[in-house]
Design a protein that fits this description.
By secondary structure, the protein is mostly helical. Among the domains are: 2-79, no CATH class; 85-145, no CATH class. Helices cover 76% and strands 0% of the residues. It contains 26 helices and no strands. It is globular, with a radius of gyration of 29 Å.
C-alpha cells in the first residue's frame, strides 16, 4: 500500500513531505527520507532496501515503513487542511475537541460554532449531526450553552438525515428499473418519464424531491447507467433537460462546478454520437466558457476533453481541421504535462493517419505510442486494439515480420484472458482474419475466412478504433 500512496503524490506534495519530515531533525542520512526516495524511484526491491538500512532486522524496517506511512498522511492533511469547505469544517470540529479535552470550554464552543456554520453552508448533514452531539456534550460542562436550542436543531437536522436515507431506497429502485427496462433504448422520453414516476412514487415529500444533494445524486446515477448502456439518444434528452433545470434553479456553484463541466462534456459526446456535429461544437464552446469560470480553476482538468470533442466532430466535418486540432493539442502545455493525455494524442494521430490511408505515418505513431512510458498502464482492451491496428497497418505496408510479431503477442495475451469478457471479441476475430488476407488461400481457408467474416458482422462495432468492415471491403473479402 505504501508504494501506491507514494506513487500518487505530486511533486509539490513530495517536496512538502520532506520539509515536514525535516522539521525536527534535518539530516542527509535520515532513513525515512531514504526509504521514501527509494520507494518513489522504484529502483530497488524492499528486501534490498531493508538489507541496506537494517541488515536482517526486518521488524525495524517494518516499523520505519509504518511510521513513514503515518507521516505521509499527517503531511497531506496539513497541506490540504483548507482544500475543501468540508475539510475546513472538520478542522474546526477537531480543534474544538482538542480544547474540550483541555477543559477550555469557551474556546471549544467557539470552534464548534464555526464548524456548525461551515457545515450548514455546504449542507453536510452528517457532519452537523456530529457537531450538535458535541455541543450537547459541552452544554453539560457549562452554563453558557443552552442545550434545549441545540437539541431542537439537532432533531430537525436528524429528520433531514432520515430523508436522505429515503434517497438510497429511491435510487436503488430507480437504477433497477432503468437497468431492467426493455423499451427505453428505443424511446428517449421513456427514461425521463420513468425517472419522474419513480421519484414521485418513492419520495414522500416535495422538499425531498427538491433537495439539491438528492438531485445531483440522481443525475450521477442515471447518467452513469445510460453511458454504460451506450444509450446516447436518452442520454442527450436527459442531460439537456437536467442541465437546463439545474441552471434555472441556480444549483450550480463553485463547489459542484466539476459536475457542471462533466455534464457539458457528456452532452457534447452524446450529441456527437447522435451525429449532431454542429450542435456538439456549439456545446463545446459552452463548455469552454464554463472552464474559464472561477478563475480557470478546473480548466487544466477539462482542456483535454475539450480538444477531444473538437477533434472527433471535425474528423467528420473537416479532416484538415481535425488534424490541425490534434497537432495543436499535442503542443498544449497543460496536455503535455500529463503523460496519459499525451498517450491518447498519439493514438488519435495513428487512427487519423490510418483513416487517411497514410499507413506509414500511422505505423510511426503506433510505434511511438508503444514506446511511451505509460502504454503498459493503459487498459488491456485498449492495448489489444492498438496491436490489431498495428497489424492492419503492417499488412498494408506488406511488413510480414511486424504482422507476425503483433499477432504472436496477441495470441500470447489471448491465452491469459477472455477477450470477449474485456470487450475485445471483434479483435479476437480480426486476429484470425488478418493472416488469411495475405496468403494464397485454399478452399478450406476460404471457408474459414467466410465464417470469421460472418462472425465479425454479427458483433457490435461501436468500440472499434477504426472501421474493420470498411477496411476488409478494401481487401475485397467483404463486398460493398
Amino acid at each position: 500500500m505504501i508504494r501506491k500512496i507514494i506513487k500518487s503524490l505530486t511533486k509539490d506534495e513530495a517536496r512538502s513531505l520532506k520539509l515536514f519530515l525535516n522539521r525536527t531533525n534535518e539530516s542527509p542520512e535520515r532513513k525515512d527520507i531514504y526509504l521514501f526516495d527509494q520507494l518513489r524511484k522504484q529502483n530497488k526491491g524492499e528486501e534490498e532496501i531493508c538489507e541496506q538500512l537494517y541488515g536482517k532486522n526486518k521488524n525495524s524496517y517494518y516499523r520505519l515503513k509504518n511510521r513513514l506511512k503515518e507521516d505521509i498522511g499527517r503531511s497531506l492533511l496539513s497541506q490540504h487542511s483548507k482544500a475543501t469547505p468540508d475539510q475546513e469544517a472538520i478542522n474546526d470540529y477537531l480543534l474544538a475537541n482538542q480544547f474540550f479535552r483541555k477543559q477550555e470550554h469557551e474556546i471549544a464552543s467557539h470552534y464548534l460554532k464555526k464548524a456548525e456554520k461551515r457545515a450548514a453552508k455546504i449542507h453536510n448533514l452528517e457532519l452537523l449531526d456530529i457537531i450538535y452531539s458535541e455541543q450537547i456534550k459541552l452544554a453539560r460542562e457549562t452554563l453558557n450553552v443552552n442545550p434545549e436550542r441545540i437539541i431542537e436543531t439537532k432533531n430537525k437536522n436528524r429528520k433531514e438525515l432520515n430523508k436522505l436515507s429515503e434517497l438510497d431506497d429511491l435510487l436503488a429502485v430507480l437504477m433497477y428499473r432503468i437497468k431492467t427496462s426493455q423499451n427505453y433504448v428505443a424511446q428517449s422520453d421513456s427514461v425521463l418519464n420513468l425517472l419522474r414516476d419513480t421519484i414521485h412514487a418513492y419520495s414522500s415529500e416535495e422538499t425531498l424531491r427538491e433537495n439539491p444533494v438528492i438531485r445531483f445524486k440522481i443525475y450521477h446515477g442515471v447518467s452513469r447507467i445510460l453511458l454504460q448502456n451506450q444509450d446516447f439518444v436518452s442520454l442527450e434528452s436527459y442531460l439537456k433537460e437536467t442541465f437546463n433545470t439545474f441552471e434555472k434553479d441556480k444549483l450550480f456553484t463553485k463547489r459542484n462546478h466539476e459536475t457542471k463541466l462533466q455534464m457539458l462534456t457528456y452532452l457534447c459526446n452524446a450529441l456527437f454520437k447522435n451525429d449532431k456535429h454542429e450542435n456538439s461544437l456549439l456545446c463545446a464552446e459552452q463548455l469552454l466558457v464554463a472552464m474559464r469560470e472561477y478563475n480557470y480553476s478546473l480548466y487544466d482538468k477539462f482542456v483535454f476533453y475539450y480538444y477531444n470533442i473538437l477533434y472527433y466532430n471535425y474528423s467528420v466535418l473537416d479532416r484538415n481541421k481535425a488534424l490541425k486540432i490534434l497537432n495543436e493539442a499535442s503542443k498544449d502545455d497543460v496536455i503535455r504535462r500529463n503523460p496519459i493525455n499525451n498517450t491518447f494524442i498519439l493514438l488519435q494521430l495513428a487512427v487519423f493517419y490510418f483513416d487517411e490511408k497514410d499507413y506509414k505515418k500511422a505505423s510511426g505513431q503506433l510505434e511511438k505510442l508503444q514506446q511511451n512510458d505509460r502504454f503498459e498502464s493503459l487498459d488491456e482492451a485498449l492495448k489489444i486494439k492498438v496491436m490489431i491496428l498495428e497489424a492492419m497497418s503492417a499488412t498494408e505496408l506488406k511488413s510480414a515480420d511486424i504482422v507476425e510479431e503483433s499477432l504472436k503477442k496477441l495470441k500470447s495475451d489471448q491465452s491469459k484472458q477472455n477477450w470477449k469478457k474485456i470487450g475485445c471479441e471483434r479483435e479476437e476475430i480480426m486476429a484470425r482474419i488478418i493472416p488469411l488476407l495475405v496468403i494464397n488461400r485454399s478452399s478450406r481457408e476460404d471457408k474459414a475466412l467466410e465464417k470469421q467474416l460472418k462472425h465479425l458482422e454479427a458483433t457490435d462495432f461501436r468500440s472499434d478504433l477504426v472501421n474493420y468492415v470498411e477496411w476488409l471491403k478494401k481487401w475485397e473479402v467483404i463486398k460493398n
